[in-house]
Amino acid sequence: MSVAKVIEITATSPGSFEDAIRKGLARAHKTIDGIRGAWISEQKVELAEDGTIKHFRVDMKLTFLLEDD
Question: CA 28, 32, 37 angle in degrees (round to 5)?
């Protein structure tokens, strides 16, 4: 029997939403084994004072399998 857990993470990038997703997943893989999927729950941008996009931000829910004892 498999048991999974879901956690939420937030990642940012000055380049794009896709880059923020890739960076967030790469960082999560350093400390979490068995990640099976990601659901992007929100996408937001942070604007600079001149109105240009400063950062792209994504909120993700990651699903990973819990290890057996």
Answer: 70
Question: Residue 57's Cα: distance from chain center in Å?
Answer: 9
Q: Which domain holds residue 37?
A: 4-65
Q: Is pLDDT at 69 greater than 70 in this prediction?
A: no
**Contact (Cβ atoms closer than 8 angstroms) between residue 14 and residue 54:** yes
Q: How many domains does the chain have?
A: 1
Question: H/E element holding 31?
Answer: helix 17-31
Count how many residues are written for the chain: 69
Domain of residue 9, CATH code: 3.30.1660.10
For the stretch 43-61, pLDDT in tens is 999 999 999 999 999 999 9
